[in-house]
User: Fold this.
Amino acid sequence: MRNILMTVMMMIVMALLFTSIINNGNAGMRNNIKTKGDTANLDITNLSPGP
Assistant:
């Protein structure tokens, strides 16, 4: 029983860590990756052929 309780508690902690690190609104990892990807797409789109 104690092992099950510890497992459930660890899963809850992992879920809380995930939401605070990855999905943290404007400061989360997901937003940073999206911002960098959008910047890279814009830079690639603005490339012009050489002379």
